[in-house]
Amino acid sequence: MDVAVPRPSARLPGVSMAGFRQRVPAAVDIAMVAHPSVTLLVDLSEGEGLVYDAHGQHGRGSVVVGLHPGELRAGGRVGECLQIRLEPVAAAAVLGPSPELSGTVVALDDLWGPDAGRAEERLRAAASWDDRFAIAVDLLGRWLGTRPPVAPEVAHVWRRTLTGRGRVRVERLAEEVGWSRKRLSARFRSQLGITPKRAARLVRFDHAAHLLAAGRAAADVATESGYVDQSHLHREVKAFTGLTPTAVAVAPWLAIDDVAWPGSSSPRRPPGVIAGTQPAS
């Protein structure tokens, strides 16, 4: 699998992107691991392309994966794919308030209508991944700023949840912004599609998943990530992915994080993955 990442100048706040190209066309079946972002998978393959299975619901083509999707598998004969991660604050600006995206998987054309097909055509026709990233920035930039921004208090609580790795209590976050816990939960969910408590669980799980992928023992991961014990970690991993901690530790979805998403907490770089800008075909 070849991986292309955009130059630092070709990025938007709260948005990260990576391009994937399978060197030898073959059917794949990968369990996706939950991440604290809304994920757009833009299928640029010819022929069969991307297929996915979410809670027994099957679909095909470009898709938007909401926060906390649960058990989700992606596969098919995927030649090329653009993956875009939107932090919840950015997702609200690009997709609009999205409580319906929490825990769901939605076809991209169901959200963007004919614009989705036109975007795919432009991206597929581009000569290089650099061009594709530029097109994606242009498309997303048109949406950013067209909708009212989330409340500063909501954005602050999200940032604190992320930097605190999900271990800052909701009551303390409510005090920091001068709101009651009830008001914070209501505004946070209406604007980001997830409650502060569930957001904290997701961020804490993401940190734990990367520690597992780095080869850390489950007991140590549970302690460092703030779980009560190893059984608590096991239950959370199962709830977010349908997998065991052992399976998450070797999940391909995590194995390339340090290449595809510079700055992620995964310290490993697996052999055979090439980072950088490359021709689109």
Automatic annotation (TrEMBL):
SMART domains assigned to the protein according to its UniProt record, in alphabetical order: HTH_ARAC
Keyword match Transcription regulation: yes
Keyword Transcription regulation: yes
Annotated ranges, domain HTH araC/xylS-type: 152-251
Keyword annotations: DNA-binding, Transcription, Transcription regulation
Gene3D superfamilies to which the protein is assigned, alphabetical: Homeodomain-like
Source domain of life: Bacteria
Designated name of the protein: Helix-turn-helix domain-containing protein
Organism (species): Streptomyces yatensis
